[in-house]
Batch of 2 targets.
Target 1
Amino acid sequence: SMVTAMDAAVEGVVGDGFATALLARLDVHTGQLSWVSAGHPAPIVVRDGSVLTDLEQNAVLPLGLGLHQDVEPQLSELSLQPGDLVLLYTDGVVEARSDEDEEFGIDRLSDLCVRASASGLMASEILRRLVQACLEFQSGPLRDDATLLLIEWTHPARPVGAQRLP
């Protein structure tokens, strides 16, 4: 599997270290989101103005420890609904610290995402505002990698070859 290959590749590069990762696949025709989290935070999913709190994630150990060679990871899955926002992020975002040594945190990130989505903004502008909020909160340069990826699933894609009638 891809997780097995990545586990071996990371082990070969970092030696005694490890890396977290989240591998995700979105079927744009059905809205089915599938992912494997190897020691990585779960996605934040905003639906109808609030965060889905019952999102279940199957925990998988980080990559590079040589523990994925004989085990096929179990996928976590969610059926998206039109208008859902899915935010993927690294722990460097939520672990960013202010001058007062306060952590940015998952609750703040979730709240900002919900409030921005309620404004009716495009996903690109929501993402820009999330990045700006994280950078303004952080005192000095970021101490860890901080990456955000925002997906908005609006509706099922038309099948290949489908045509819109005039």
Note: The chain is about 25% helix and 25% strand.
Target 2
Amino acid sequence: MSERIGVFGGTFDPIHYGHLIAAVELRHALSIDRVLFVPAPRPPHKRSGLVGSDHHRLAMVRLAITGEESFEVSTIEYERSGPSYTADTLVELHEGHTDAAFFLFLGEDALRDFPTWHQPERILGLAHLAVATRPRSHLDLDQLYRTLPEIQDRVTLVPTPSIGISATDLRARASTGRPLRYQTTDAVIDYIGEHGMYRTRNTV
């Protein structure tokens, strides 16, 4: 039986319990063997604002998933030059795991925007979409199917707890010294404090 691998990409700036809960729920629902967290290099649309540098974001992901045997970190997008397109990442992962079945982990908002991604049809040929949905979701799947017919039968919706945590809010809280407790792991909180992250615009 082929290995089932989840691929969870994002800026993780910082990683928080919302990310971890979604990963656990999707892994359980789809019988995923292991989940690869794939931190993305600093994206062009985040040139301004308080964002963590690549090595800090990578370090926080590693700290957050410590002790969870089915979770791993992949630096595949850091090692590739040029834009970090999901389609290219999945091609590289397939080359290294030729017998594996891949599941791309997404949230509702990402699924809505999916038809605008770079080569969405190519992505669908490389991975099944595993989508963490909020309670009382109002996703218009019919509209999505009309926009991108290839997505039918390539997406599974998994209801997950909605806990109202966002990386944007955590950065804002850290910038003013407000508590982050119970919103991300203690190890990540300690790291943010130790490195004075999000306090200045030039986080190193």
Note: DSSP finds eight helices and six strands in the chain.
